[in-house]
Structure formats: structure tokens, C-alpha cells
Amino acid sequence: MSNTVILAVDPSDLQTVDALTLAGPLTALVAVCLVLAVVLVITVIVMSRPRRNSAKATQPRGAHNEAGPKATWHARINDVLSRYESGTLNREDAFVELALIARDFAGASSGKRLEASTLADLMRLPRTPANRQGLDTLRHTIEALYPPEFADPSLNTLAKSVTVKEAAGWVSNLVERWRS
What we know:
Layout: H1 23-48, H2 55-58, H3 69-86, H4 91-110, H5 119-124, H6 132-150, H7 157-161, H8 164-177
């Protein structure tokens, strides 16, 4: 058995078909493409323009911002330093006040009560990606302030070698590096 198929076609029965009419759908497709091209060009133009400066963006930032919230904390730090340098505040009290400023600042920035927190308390605070850097900087600052604040300078060389100006710099660094 062979699988051959024989097809008998009568050539006189063949008829021509009219041309396909694709003009309508092609016209619609071209129109949609042109509209999309115009929208794309407008989007590119709008997106490439520089942003408008808002009122917040024109305010001085960083070291140039004298009226910012950090300025209050720097003023407190500078007050301790100037009172120490003028002789109205002794060395030990200056370290105590600087540690208190560091804790007060961190408490105000984090929303937690930290004014009486010990170094061990600070180590136990839960850290999140948002507060990790600030709490770690606070812990390092308090840890650096412990020897001059609590140790006997005659027995501890670190407590003797740290100056009030240096400690004020640590607290100032905490204020500047804190990210809310």
C-alpha cells in the first residue's frame, strides 16, 4: 500500500480573490505608533529638565546651617567648653555635662529616654538599620567619655590625657554624624 494522494483539480474552476484590505488596520497601527512616539518624546523632555529648587533645598545645609536643630546642641557643647576654659566649670563636671549632652541629644533624636543610660544599657538597645549608626556612635562616645568622667586621673593615664576640648569634639561628632 502506498500513501500517495492524488488531487484532481480542474483549472477552469479556479477564481481570483480580491486584494486583501489592510489599509484600515495599518493606518490605525501607524497612528498608535505616532502617538506613542510623541508621548515618549514629551516624557524624555520633561524627565531631562532639572528639578525645581524647593524652599527646603535652598536652605543652607551641613556646616553652613547656623539655625538648624543641630545648632542648639553645638551651642550647648560650646557653652560647656567656654565655661571650662573660663574656669567657672571644673574638668570633671565638664565631662559629666558633655556625657549628658550626648545622651540628651541621642534621646531627642531617637525618641528614647537615654539620659540615665549606662554603657551596658546602650549595648542592649535593639538596633535596626535606621538607628544602628547613631546608637553605635553614641556608644563609642560614651565609652570614650567614661575614663575622664569616672576614673581617677592620677591612676588612669587615659583619664589624664583626654582634654575637655577633645571630649567636646567627640560629642560634636556624634551630633554631626547622627542620621534620623
